[in-house]
Structure formats: C-alpha cells, structure tokens
Hints:
Number of domains of chain B: 1
Structural class of chain A: alpha/beta
CATH topology of chain B: MetI-like fold
Distance between the termini of chain A: 40 Å
Number of helices of chain B: 14
Order of helices and strands of chain A: EEEHEEEEHEHHHEHEHEEHH
Number of strands of chain B: 2
Helix content of chain B: over 70%
CATH class of the largest domain in chain A: Alpha Beta
Strand content of chain B: under 5%
Oligomer: heterodimer
Number of domains of chain A: 2
CATH architecture of the largest domain in chain A: 3-Layer(aba) Sandwich
Amino acid sequence: MTETLVRASNVRKSYGHVEVLKGVSLTVKPGEVMCLLGPSGSGKSTFLRCINHLERINGGRIEVGGELVGYARRHGKIFEMNPREVSRQRRGIGMVFQRFNLFPHMTAVENIMAAPVGVKKMERAAAKARAHELLERVGLSHVAGHYPAQLSGGQQQRVAIARALAMDPELLLFDEPTSALDPELVGDVLDVMRRLAADGMTMIVVTHEIGFARSVADTVVFMDGGVVVEAGSPAEVLDNPQNPRTVAFLNSVM
Amino acid sequence: MSSAVPATTAATAAARQEGAVAAEAEDDVVAIPLRHPWRWVVAAVLVLALAGLLASLWTNPNIEHSTIATYLFNPKIINGVGLSLLVTVIAMLVSTVLGVLLAVMRLSKNPVMNAFAWLYVWVFRGTPLLIQIVFWGYLGLLYSQISLGVPFTDFTIFSVDTNTLVPAFVAGLLALTLNQAAYSAEIIRSGMLSVDPGQHEAAASLGMSPSYTLFKVVLPQAMRVIIPPMGNETISMLKQTSLLSVIAVLELYTVATQISSQNLRQVELLLVVSAWYLFLTSVLSVPQYYLERHYGRGTAAQAPTLLGRILQNRITQNRITPRSKR
C-alpha cells in the first residue's frame, strides 16, 4: 500500500531545557536496512526510542505503516493513545537493546515465549515450538533451558533478537546491539543480523560498527547534535562524505 | 613459568583425589593454617555464662517446673496458639495483597492514587499499633450502628449493630492487617524500584500491557528483594498478635494471662508462652527459605539465613550423592 514503512518528519525531543532532537526527518522503505551513526549524545538512540514510543516526542510526527506513533486519528481529531493502544502498536515494532534486557527469571525459551503467550494469546505448545525454531535460527538450540545469567553476552543478545522476532514484527530497532559485548562475541550477533537483513527484514540499527554498516546497510544516516547531518548509500556517506563533521567522525572511529 | 603453575595445581588436585598425600610438588607452599585462640576463649566464657543462667533457672525455688510441663500442652494454650497462627496467616496474606495495591498506586503516575497511597501509609504507619488495635476494638463507641445507604439522606439499605459486625476477633484482625499493609507497601515498593528499568522497556517493546508487565516481569523479580524483609514482618506479626490481649481476643498471650491470674504462676506461664513463640518463629523460617529459593532462580546468590544454609547443605548433599553414584 505505502512505499514507506517509517516516516519521521521534523521530530523534536527535549529533556527539560536540553533539546536532544532538533527536527529529524527521514524515511525507511519496507525491507530497507538503515544504520544510524554518530558520536555519543548525537540523539540517535533517543530517536530510535521515539519510533516505538518509549520516548514521547515534543514536536513533529512519526508514522509507522501509515499510523501515527502514540496518537490516534478519530473523527478528524488527533487523540493521545491510552496504554492499551500503545501496547498494541508496539507489537509490530521489535526492539533489541544494548544491555539485552532479557527477563532474568525466565529461561531462554521462556523469554521468547512470554510475549506470544501473554500478548498474542498463542497456545503454549505452539509458542514453545516456535521459540525453539527461533533459537535454532540464531544458533542457540543447545541453551534453550538456560537462564540469561548462564549465557554469554553474545548468546544473550541472540536470544533477545529471537524474542523480538517471536512477535513477527514488521520493523526491528537495534540500539547499539554489540556495544556491550566482548570483541570476540560481536561477530556472532552481527552474523544473525546480516541474515535477517538478507531475509528482507526492515531494520533500523544504531551502531558503531562501520564495517557492518558498509556491508549490510542500504542507507547510512550520520547524526550529530540532534540533526541528520548526512544521509545516503554507504558508498556516499562512508567513502565520500561531504560534511566536515562526518569526515571528522569517520576519521576518529576508523 | 606462569603456564607451569596450573599444571602443577591440577596434578596436586588429582593426587589428593586418589588419596596420595606425599605427591605435593616442590614449589607448593605448605603452611600451618592461621590459629584463632581467642575464639575458643570467648566461646568458653559464653558457654559458662549460659550454663550458669540455665542452672539458676533450673534450681530457682520460685519456679515450679511441673507447672510449665502441665500447661505447655494445655488445650486452652493450644487453642491460643492456633488462634495466634490463624490471625498471623490471614493478616499477612490480606495485608500483602493490600500492600501490592498500595505500592502500585504509590508508583503510578495517577496523582489521585498516588496521594491516596501516601495518605494511607502516613496514617497507619504514623500511629502506634497498640492504639490502632484499641481503636478498632472500641469502634462501637464511635459508630454504634454501621449502615449502607446514600450519604446525607435517610435512605439506608441495611444497618447493623457495630459490635455484631465487628467482634473482638475481627477488630483485631482488621487492626493488624491494615497496619501491616502500610509497612508491606513500602517493602514491596522498594522491591519494585529495585527492578532494572530496562525490564520495563523490554516488556513495553514486546507490546506487553502494564498489568501483564507488573505480574509477569516486575513482581517476580521484585520478590527476590521483597521476601527477606517480609519474612521478618511475618515473625513480627506473630509476636504482635499478643497485643490483641488488650481487646480480649483469645490468642496465646491472653489465654496465658487468664490462666496465671487464677493460679498466680505468672513466670511459669510466661515461659510457656515464650517457648511457643520461639517454636513458631523457628518454624516460620522454613517457608521463607523455600520462597527465597523459588524466586532466586536465575541468580546465583541464595539462602542467606543460618537455617537456610543448614537446609541448603542438606539439600545439595542429597542431590549430589545420587548423581555421583550413577
């Protein structure tokens, strides 16, 4: 129907007097992989959290699948959504966090089953079978019964990805998914993400992995100071940056 | 050099397992363990003092030991024990439910609920329990009739005599429950605050509703922090039931004072009562241990109590033995 899955226009967000996002506009097409790069404090994580309404925006608008995020149009007026409507909207948007945020009192397989059973009212047996399928997909069938504390960081993050996938989202948000990992574990997680991208998943990835952005991203967006400084294909932004701030950042991380 | 160390240790460990003592390598440090002579001295002094105290009680002519033996399992006393336990269990269960409700209200963004919970805790935690008990006991003096109807009109659906609706037992139960709810609410609130905010975000990002998040994600994790102080509260509650003697609820202490006012053996009956309270508080530590174990799943640290540690040793030994036999 729409050729755009995510449309953000002029998004603004402030914490008190500090304006973190100063008018961010971008669009993501279905099946597109977008990498958000930028120095810390540039607002890229905040922007990501606005897309699934974990943060409430102070201005502009975000639409996912043609629907306003956090607001409902009824009878020509715009209403703030109640918590139940917000929950329903978030089901279509998966998120993977920097610190994994697995539920520590549930095993890997229970973590993945929790939302399908509790939110979608899926039958336990079906949810369990699907959870095992997803664990296999991220290469972790052998740790299904382990608690998060018994898993390495890389394994926890792959379980977290499987947990997000269990809700069959049309969009996956990654908030620095490899920043909390030991260097030798980063590869496994990036491999899983690479396969997801190849399968056609729409992904917005906040990352510092320039190599991953170069090889997987369709679009690379460089943010600094709460605005989009430069956006385009990896070849344009990473290999031939036009803005001096992009050049300075790339020089410092590569 | 550094690579040789683990190899030696492994070899020594293997040798010890085989029972060969003399197989230690040359570079192993063989030391005499640190001695603690003062521990023995202090322990001896304490044991002597305790023995002296017990002997003075045992040989005291003012204590009739036969009276203690007679009343320890007296049917009246046993009924009192039963009632104390019943009050403890009901008050703890109901107050915990109220406490969760109050904690959720206190943490909610709704200013009305927030203010109500704050006011509740302020009133019930800010006045002495003894006074609250007497207040509920004398409720009939304040409202002789309790009726349901439309306020400020004469329309009433039903009306009951206060002393019929709220006999001493119910008054006591109400007082203990409502007071405990205020304390439990604060314990539960601190437990909920101890859960990582990332857990709320993860649940939200999966589309979980606030109530599902509360019951399936937040409370199970908060339990780990909540249970140890709640075990404390349960033990306090059991002992606080003795305060109900002021409104003549026939719990353990009331029964004992009734008996001693007739036979004038106050000290003996106090010893009987103390023995029962000690026994009951000891028994109550057992479920606490198992609750801690249950809610501690997924984490390493467990069983901080002495009893818990003893029990845990037993359990792990029992578990390991059959496995090693296989």
